[in-house]
Structures are given as C-alpha cells and as structure tokens.
C-alpha cells in the first residue's frame, strides 16, 4: 500500500538485505523451517531445539555412543555440552537460546500485521490504517487524526511516518538488548578462550578461570577494524566456493540422472534377453526330460508286452488242459504237454532276462537353491535333469532261481590304482550301490574312490585319517570308520561326485574301531574286544557284546534287522561269525571251512557271504548257518579276500594279496 497500512522495512537493504537476513538468522539449517525455540552453539549457528537434539542423538549412536562431543551440523566444529554427564537427548537444552532470533521473528510477525489508527478505533471506525507513529504518546495516527488530534495537543513533538521508520536501528537496538538464554541477563561479555558471548553471571560461573575475558563492546571494537573486513572477504570467497560446489553437484546429479536412465534401459534389455535365454534353457531341459521319459516308457512297454503275450499263451494252455476231449486224444495231450513245457522254459528265460535288465528309473529336476538367494555368487542356471537308474529287484512272488542255488561268475577285474596314487592300494572296505556304483576305500593312499561296474573311474575324496571298513547307509550315502581317531565319517555318493558330509566322534570309546554297519538309524562298530551300538544323532557308544578277537567287518540284514559280525580268527572251533538280534547274540559259524574271517555282507534273500582271508575262499551260508557252500576258492584265483559287498545278484570283492596283480584290483561277480 502506497500510503501505509503495512509496516515494510524499506531500509534493511542497506544493512544485509531483508531476504538474506531472514534466511540466515531465522531458518533452521536442519529442517529448513522457521526456527522453533532456537538454540545457539558456540560457533553461533542456531537450530531448533528439537532438531538439534535429534541430530545429537543420531550422530552419537552406534560406534559414537560413548562420544563426549559432537560436530556442528553446518561448520563441523567440534562442540562440547556444558554438562556431559546428562543424557544426550538433553544436551541441546544446555545451549543458550538465540533471543535475537526470537525477537526478529516476533518483529517480523508484527511488521506484517495491518496497523490501525488509534483515535479512529476509539471512535468506532476500525478500518482506518495508521500512517504515523508518535514516540511520546506511543500511539498510531492516520493523516487526518494527526492534524486534527495529535498536532492540536502535542505541538512539541513530530510523529514519525511509518514507511520512513529506520528499521535497521530497531534491529540494532534489539541486538544490543539480547539477553542470556540461561540467566535472562543482558549479553555484555565475551570469552575469547571459548569464543562465546555471555552475561556477567555466565562469566563468573563458567569462565572465571579463563584468561581472555572482555566486554562485548571492547571485543567488537577489537575486531571491527580489519578482522571484520577480512572475514567478509573470506565469506565472499566461501560463498563463491559454495556456488561452484553447488553447480558441480547439479552437474553430477544431471550426469547421474542420465546414467540412471541408460542403466534402466540396459536392465530392461538384459532382462528381455535373459528371459529369451531361459526360455531356450527350459525348452532344452523339457526336451531332455520328455525324451528320457519316452525312452524308459518304451522299454517298460516292451517288457510288459512280452509278459502279456507269454501270460495269454500260458492262460490259453491252462484253459485247453481242462478240455475233457484231450483225455482221449493222445496226440493232443502230448502237444499240449510240449507246448506247456516250452512256455515254462520261456517264462524262466524271460524272468532271467528281466532280472538282469530290470531297473528302476527316477527322473528329477535338480538345481542349486542358492540361485534363489539375493546375495548368491552362484551362476544363474535352470539346473539339470537327472536320470538316475538302479538295478531293481523283481517282486518276491516271481518264480526265479534263488540266489542260494546260483553259481558265481566273474564279470570283470577293475584296476583301482590311479596315476596320482603314490603307493599300491590297500582296500579294507568296499560298497556296491545301485546303478553299478562302486566305492572303494584305499587306506594306503587315504582316498575313497568311485568307479562304475564297467571299470570307469569317476572321482575320489581324500580322507586324512586312517580308516578301515565301509558300509551302506542309504542308496546315496556310505560311512567309514576312522580307527585311530575313533570316529565315523559319512560321505555322499552321486553319479560323479563324493562329498564328505560329517564326522561323528564316538564318545566314551577307548579302542580302535574297525568294522561298521548301519541299521535303523544306528551304527554298529567292532573293535578289538567288543561290538558297540552308536546312535547316528549322538555318537555315544553302547556296548552290545564282548568278542574273543577283533571284528574287522559287519553286515546288516535290512529285512529283519539282524546284524552279522565277522570275527577275525583262525583258531579251530573258534567263533567266526556271530549274529545279533533283539539284544541277543548267536554263534552261527565257527572256524572250519573259512579261516581268518574278514569281509561279510547279506543279500536280499537273507543269505550271508563271508570272506576267509587265510583260507583264500568266499562262502555263502543261510542266516542261521545251517547251509554253507563255497562260491570261490584259491583255484578261482582268489587270494586273501578282504572285503565283500552285495547288491542284487552282483558282488564286488577286494583282496589283500601280496602281489600287485591282486591288491590293485577289485573283482565284480554275478550270480547266474
């Protein structure tokens, strides 16, 4: 308004400029809002009390929790509270209030308020803006009331026009009257040691030991000559530096924005390409899965059709045998008899064929679950399709020749010595698994080795400790006794890999452990004098039975849970094999046909196979020891047989012969 009404600061541009003054002194650098309960630090930067308290707590958290000071949010000057022992949330309250800022805020609010003429208000006209201020009467007047009211009674003073009022002088008066926020006294002193303003009480209480304490006026005069100008010069340089830095930050932000857009476009493009690549990988795996399924399905369909054709033919023969007319027809009866004989032979031949070729096939999609973890280092793949095949035992109801009536025939001799082996092999244990996988324990070279029944070497894993017997835990796990350290090591067996899973320390066992078998989540181990049960989840040995000589090998009948222990001895009439069942023991074989019994295992029909290391033979006996027959003797080339393992109708046998031709090989046999 040209004639008045709002009080505007027309001369403040001659000091600092109204906008820069307000921004500098009335805005909190933390929240960027108008100061609320302003607190001043020794560096004279002011902040809202709440903002400063939050800043102090946040800065002094974590590793800085024990800090006794903090840095100014603006100039980073290290600042100490007056009382360090107080909670950090109350440090902000200890600093003096910026009363100058409070007064300026109040003044700013007042000068932006419409001021009305006092006499006109009393006459009921409240909308007449004032244009003059009388210092003597402390009243505002419009132009009419100044002439008609004020000048008639106060001709000795001249009211001041509001728009010409020197606001810079008012500001200076406010500054000079600023009081101490702690003692509500006038700030008249300055401590050069701490570089802080204070009242007389502050100086007496907090700065009585300081050397350079002077009045605020004297210190102002001291710095007013050259230091103020030098400071202003430095401030201009700093402002220029900040402008350069702000421009540089803006340029960096612009560059980052462009980079972000480019990176997002690249990310979207890569995601599209990855999706396309994964579509191809999924198709490849799907095709492999479908082809594998189709191949196995065709094999099963062929086997089923052979069985169906032979079954229908035999059913027809059975039906024809009930025809009463055949009894009077000699030729027909003979033909029917011959046809039936041929069909029975065909059935036995087909059963033998299926027994050899029958296998169970599992199709599985396997992938590394780590690919689903955000921080994984695993390459992104869709995994692989695993076709796992293993020999399958025909149903027990199928009419076939019992294993106890078959003869043993050697399939091949497998060389187990590797180019990296420093010594000749010493195989104390071996396990035959499904799919023709053979795991042998070469103690001389401290390796477990994996071969196929075709003699192909796949891999090995090193076992640093001395070890002895091996046993089957499940179709993909074997266990080995670590005799010196008295522990059990479990190893995972895949088609191409061997991986150590765990080492179970056998508690309260003082003797070396040799033989081992697994039955119902429990290991049974043999020592020099005893047989012990070792729970798989605890590893605490429980003695089952005392023996007269060391037990080098054990075996389990998985059908009825019986455990057979091979006792190494050649003493006449000494126990060679003992059987544990339901907490009792039974001697099922004495030294006679076999001497120095070592390797032992049980087939699917409950037949027990025992190696006679000193008698150079391998026997097969019934589970109660009443029926015994020799399968292999020294005339078959067997010398010092040590370990034996049975799977289906196949056996693998190792040797501890003194000749390299024996102990660097294992032999694979089949019951035919």
Secondary structure class reads alpha+beta
CATH superfamily membership of the largest domain:
TolB, C-terminal domain
**Class of the largest domain in CATH?**
Mainly Beta
Through-space gap between termini: 120 Å
Alpha carbon gyration radius: 51 Å
Low-confidence stretches: 1-20, 164-177
Oligomerization status of the protein chains: single chain
Note the overall shape. elongated
Share of helix, binned? 25-40%
Based on DSSP secondary structure assignment, what is the total number of beta strands? 36
Fold-level CATH name of the largest domain: Neuraminidase
- How do the strands of the widest beta sheet line up side by side? 13-36-35-34
- Which range does the strand content fall in? 25-35%
Number of helices: 12
What is the average per-residue confidence, as pLDDT, rounded to a whole number? 85
Provide a short characterization of the protein structure:
With 672 residues, the protein is an alpha+beta fold.
Topology at a glance:
Blueprint: H1 18-26, E1 38-40, E2 46-48, H2 49-59, E3 70-71, E4 78-79, H3 91-94, H4 99-111, H5 118-122, E5 132-134, E6 139-141, H6 143-153, E7 160-161, H7 167-176, E8 189-191, E9 196-198, H8 200-206, E10 213-215, H9 216-224, H10 227-320, H11 330-357, E11 359-366, E12 384-391, E13 408-415, E14 427-433, E15 437-442, E16 447-452, E17 457-462, E18 470-474, E19 477-482, E20 487-493, E21 498-505, E22 516-519, E23 522-526, E24 530-535, E25 542-546, E26 551-557, E27 562-567, E28 575-581, E29 584-590, E30 597-602, E31 608-612, E32 617-621, E33 628-632, E34 641-647, E35 650-655, H12 660-663, E36 665-671
Antiparallel strand pairs: 1-2, 3-4, 5-6, 5-7, 8-9, 8-10, 11-12, 13-36, 14-15, 15-16, 16-17, 18-19, 19-20, 20-21, 22-23, 23-24, 24-25, 26-27, 27-28, 28-29, 30-31, 31-32, 32-33, 34-35, 35-36
């Amino acid at each position: 308004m040209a004639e008045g009404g709002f009080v505007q600061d027309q001369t403040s541009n001659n000091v600092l400029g109204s906008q820069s003054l307000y921004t500098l002194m009335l805005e909190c650098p933390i929240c960027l809002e108008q100061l609320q309960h302003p607190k001043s630090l020794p560096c004279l930067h002011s902040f809202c009390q709440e903002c400063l308290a939050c800043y102090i707590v946040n800065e002094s958290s974590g590793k800085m929790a024990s800090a006794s000071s903090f840095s100014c949010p603006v100039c980073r000057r290290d600042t100490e509270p007056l009382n360090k022992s107080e909670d950090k949330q109350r440090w902000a309250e200890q600093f003096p209030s910026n009363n100058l800022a409070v007064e300026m805020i109040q003044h700013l609010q007042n000068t932006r308020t419409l001021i009305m003429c006092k006499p006109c208000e009393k006459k009921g006209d409240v909308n007449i803006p004032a244009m003059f201020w009388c210092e003597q009467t402390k009243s505002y007047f419009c132009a009419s009331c100044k002439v008609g009211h004020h000048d008639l009674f106060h001709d000795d003073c001249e009211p001041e026009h509001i728009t010409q009022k020197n606001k810079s002088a008012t500001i200076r008066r406010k500054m000079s009257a600023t009081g101490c926020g702690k003692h509500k006294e006038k700030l008249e002193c300055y401590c050069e040691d701490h570089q802080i303003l204070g009242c007389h009480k502050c100086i007496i209480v907090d700065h009585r030991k300081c050397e350079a304490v002077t009045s605020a006026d004297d210190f102002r005069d001291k710095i007013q000559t050259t230091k103020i100008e030098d400071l202003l010069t430095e401030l201009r340089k700093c402002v220029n530096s900040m402008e350069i830095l702000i421009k540089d930050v803006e340029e960096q932000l612009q560059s980052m924005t462009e980079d972000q857009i480019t990176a997002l476009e690249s990310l979207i493009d890569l995601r599209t390409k990855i999706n396309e690549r994964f579509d191809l990988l999924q198709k490849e795996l799907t095709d492999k899965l479908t082809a594998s399924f189709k191949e196995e399905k065709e094999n099963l369909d062929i086997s089923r059709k052979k069985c169906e054709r032979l079954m229908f033919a035999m059913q027809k023969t059975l039906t024809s045998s009930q025809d009463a007319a055949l009894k009077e027809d000699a030729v027909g009866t003979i033909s029917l008899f011959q046809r039936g004989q041929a069909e029975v032979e065909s059935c036995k031949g087909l059963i033998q064929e299926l027994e050899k070729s029958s296998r169970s096939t599992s199709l599985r999609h396997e992938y590394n679950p780590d690919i689903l973890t955000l921080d994984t280092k695993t390459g992104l793949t869709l995994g692989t399709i695993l076709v796992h095949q293993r020999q399958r035992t025909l149903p027990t109801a199928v009419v076939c020749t019992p294993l106890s009536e078959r003869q043993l025939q050697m399939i091949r001799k497998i060389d187990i010595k590797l180019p990296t082996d420093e010594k000749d092999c010493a195989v104390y244990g071996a396990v035959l698994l499904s799919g023709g996988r053979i795991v042998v324990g070469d103690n001389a070279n401290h390796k477990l080795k994996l071969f196929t029944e075709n003699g192909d070497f796949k891999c090995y894993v090193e076992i640093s400790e001395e070890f002895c017997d091996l046993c089957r835990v499940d179709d993909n796990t074997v266990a080995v006794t670590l005799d010196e350290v008295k522990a059990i090591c479990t190893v995972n067996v895949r088609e191409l890999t061997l991986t150590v899973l765990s080492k179970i320390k056998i508690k309260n066992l003082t003797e070396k452990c040799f033989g081992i078998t697994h039955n119902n989540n429990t290991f049974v181990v043999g020592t020099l004098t005893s047989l012990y049960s070792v729970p798989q989840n605890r590893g605490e040995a429980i003695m089952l039975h005392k023996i007269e000589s060391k037990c080098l090998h054990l075996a389990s009948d998985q059908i009825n849970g019986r455990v057979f222990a091979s006792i190494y001895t050649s003493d006449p009439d000494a126990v060679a094999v003992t059987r544990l069942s339901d907490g009792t023991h039974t001697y099922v074989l004495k030294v006679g046909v076999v001497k120095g019994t070592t390797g032992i295992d049980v087939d699917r029909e409950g037949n027990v196979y025992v190696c006679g290391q000193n008698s150079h033979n391998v026997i097969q006996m019934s589970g109660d020891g009443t029926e015994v027959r020799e399968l292999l003797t020294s005339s078959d080339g067997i010398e010092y047989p040590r370990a034996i393992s049975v799977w289906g109708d196949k056996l693998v046998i190792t040797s501890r012969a003194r000749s390299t031709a024996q102990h660097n090989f294992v032999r694979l046999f089949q019951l035919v």
